[in-house]
Fold this sequence. Notes:
Immunoglobulin-like, globular
Amino acid sequence: MKLIECQGSHNIYKVMKEVVDVSEKEIVANSVDAAIEKHVPQYEIDGDKIVVSVNHVMEEDHYIEWIMIEYNDSDMTKYFKSGDKAEVEAKYVAGMKLYAYCNKHGLWMKEV
Ligand SMILES: [Fe+2]
């Protein structure tokens, strides 16, 4: 998965099909100098289910905006607001990638 950030508006886009090199604006996971344990998604596997969470504050000005789960052939995103619990349950598939986006500290990823 490739996510890019517009340098002017700071809008974030998921690249659905890449026809030109957009790497200069790519958001690189786990690249911000911040507490790894508070940003990298954690998970518990129970049979064919996985519960993904982020051990992060969910304050009005600092919170996890979304968790995205990437499979080989699809992805899903759950959005949060301050006060929510940053947690989502999904189907477990080996090799899946878990992303979390903090509004202050950017993109974090863990491969399961
Ligand atoms: Fe953060």
